[in-house]
Amino acid sequence: MRRSFLVGLVPAVAIAAASFTSTKVAHAGPIIGLDLDLGTAFQSRNTAAVDFSVGGGARLGYRFGLPGTYLFLQPEIGGHYMRFGFNADNVGYDYAGILNGGLRFGLSGIVQPAIFGHLGLGIMGYNQTGGQNGQVSGYLGPAGDIGGALDFRIVPGFMLGAQIAYNTVTVPSQAFLSSAKWVNFGLAATFHIGEPRPRPVYVRRYY
Predict the structure, then answer these.
(1) CA distances from 194 to 30, 31, 36, 200 (A)
(2) pTM for this model (two decimals)
């Protein structure tokens, strides 16, 4: 009985070892990402409101696998737009548009946790009079974000997951600098172009 147990255990160990080895290399290749975001916008310090927001964006990058590890490093550039204040008509920030570049660092495999950070240029629309038809002025300033993501490989070359980020844009406001801040969270679809399919593993059983 002990011999039959060992014979049955060998294929299981072989399959596990083969799977471990085949996923240990994070494959390099271009990345296209599409984001759909909800968020909370922290309005100007005069209103101190938190508004429901919605937006989206796109990312282009290239994923490098770190040799001999599960880890990847991904330089990327992107653009995002966020519309603020769907549940308020107060004076304050109305929208944000951002162009940025940065790095994403994470773990490859079926489940792919990652962290990221970007720097770039943002434009903030500021509603000076309030209301849906208020006077909106645009301000340019440096932008940055930091956040985390959790992706799941649905099929080779396509990941679907969620991400959350803290964003800030520094803009001039009435002769001084102020920071517009918001948190966005939502879905992310990522296409890893050229990612190879997993190689089949064949195990010969001996009796």
Answers:
(1) 8, 9, 24, 18
(2) 0.74
